[in-house]
Amino acid sequence: MYIGKKLKELRKSRGLTLVELSKKSGVQVATISRIENLKMTGTLESHMSIAKALGIDVTELYSDVVQTSRTVDVSNGKGQQDVFVHSDKASHEILTTNVLKKKMMPILLSLEGGGSTQIEQGVSGAERFVYVLEGKVEILISETSYSISKGNSIYFDSSLPHQFKNNQTRTARVLSVATPAAL
After folding, report:
1. pLDDT tens per residue, the chain (183 residues)?
2. Fold of the domain built from segment(s) 83-179
């Protein structure tokens, strides 16, 4: 849900510049600009600070706001995806474009034998679904270890610290879908 258009209208109707609103609200100028230009949604805390600075109730920011993106993205799998390397034996390939404008982030995780990811931890309320396409992986969630193999899945609260490991010799490939989408 983007509030950018509404925010810009309210700011301009009060004769405030981005810098002035930033000073009054304590929210960075770049953040307000990105919100207004639909590059990010912001946090509830930033929305509350901005609303207070504008002298309105935060709910007014959300009135008449609709989701702006009703798109269908089709990937042909030919180099459009971003790849993030954890180590020489672990990488994430994001399976869609414009991921930060989406509610979930589909990833193909490749772990060579002996490979592992860094310890990850999502924001409060974050969730993750994992399905093993090839091989076998160990997933450490908090201090508990789960071993899942081809055809098995796990769904968990990804705000808990977690890490993926491949203790086998052959490469493991895992489909993972995380929400909210974040890098």
Report:
1. 578 888 999 999 999 999 999 999 999 999 999 888 888 888 888 999 999 999 998 888 887 665 545 566 666 655 555 666 656 788 888 888 777 777 888 999 999 999 999 899 888 888 999 999 999 999 999 999 999 999 999 999 999 999 999 999 999 999 999 888 765
2. Jelly Rolls (2.60.120)
Work out the number of other CB atoms within 10 angstroms of the CB of residue 18: 17
pTM: 0.59
Give the domain ranges of the chain.
Answer: 4-62, 83-179
Angstrom CA distances, 50 to 30, 60, 104, 153, stand at: 13, 11, 26, 41
